Amino acid sequence: MKIFLRTTAATLFITSFLLWFAVRYFSDSIRINPGVISLKIVYSFMRFFQLFIGIGWPWAISVNLYKVLPTDLKGMRIQIFKTVLSIYLLALIIEHTLFTMNNAHSLFHPLSYLLLYAAIILVLHIYFAQFIAKELTSIELQRATTWGDYSGTFFLLLFGPIGIWWIQPKINKLFTEETEDDAS
Prior knowledge:
This protein is mainly alpha-helical. The chain has seven helices and no strands. It starts with a helix and ends with a helix.
């Protein structure tokens, strides 16, 4: 997962945006042609790569940022973060499964679970954006941070592909410096 620590912002941006558009295209195609199995297979592979980036990037960032946090700031609960991110992954897998098997007679019709699903995913996404923002800002400032210190980074993380343009260069710089320090 360390590939996410050294990749460029442009690569992450283009990959996540292209995958998002491709997944949307194939999900619409599946709605139009629900019996075509090959569309569901292609959709599943694209969704897998989208999940890999969507979950792998925050996981790699948070776990590796936690390692370089000053010792007096390690009170942040990395295990809770890992659990929340795992629940987020499980919710996304359930959503994918329900979408691809959905039919008119299904108990899990999209309208029946949309609001609950959206609320759960939103809360989990806000939590891990807050956690990573607080970690990154604490490392940059080398002290405990308050909401005012990390709110900008939080909103950049919340708006994913656009926020990557500002956050990824900071992460690249931080881990490039760490690698150079380890080498010397």
